[in-house]
Amino acid sequence: MKRAIGSKRAAQLRQAATNSIGLTEGLTAAKIELRTLLEQYGLFSRQLEEIMMQVEALLAQIPVTFLDNLIRRVNWMLEYRRTIPRFIQRQRLENTSSKQFS
């Protein structure tokens, strides 16, 4: 039967791990990667903010009546799109029922 590692051996392993190149180099690399990712996030955030300001400026140039009409037309098209399948289904039902009685 194997025995568990003793506290003396555990202390030796811990000391060896603290002096390990992999531990310190990995930590340094992780810090560099994290810093790089945060810088990229900041850059993307600034770019997004600039783009949104340009979009807002362009939207401000569009007359409100045009936007209102556009929204109404889009809503109408969405509603129309929902009614077409119902209409087709109704037509099919009418056609099949009229054929049964012929």
Question: What would your notes on this structure say?
Answer:
The chain contains 3 helices and no strands. It folds into 2 domains: 61 residues; 40 residues. The chain is 88% helix and 0% strand. It is elongated and about 90 Å long. The chain is an all-alpha fold and 102 residues long.
Condensed summary:
The protein folds into two domains: 1-61; 63-102. Helices cover 88% and strands 0% of the residues.
Looking at the structure, what is the overall shape?
A: elongated
Strand count, sense and barrel status of the largest sheet are:
none
Oligomer: single chain
Q: Could you give the order of the helices and strands?
A: HHH
Rg from Cα: 34 Å
Percent in strands: under 5%
Secondary structure category: mainly alpha
Helicity range of the residues?
Answer: over 70%
Record field, number of beta strands: 0
Average predicted local confidence, pLDDT: 81
Distance between the termini: 90 Å
Protein topology:
Elements: H1 7-18, H2 21-61, H3 64-100
Attribute tags:
102 residues; mainly alpha; 2 domains; 3 helices; 88% helix
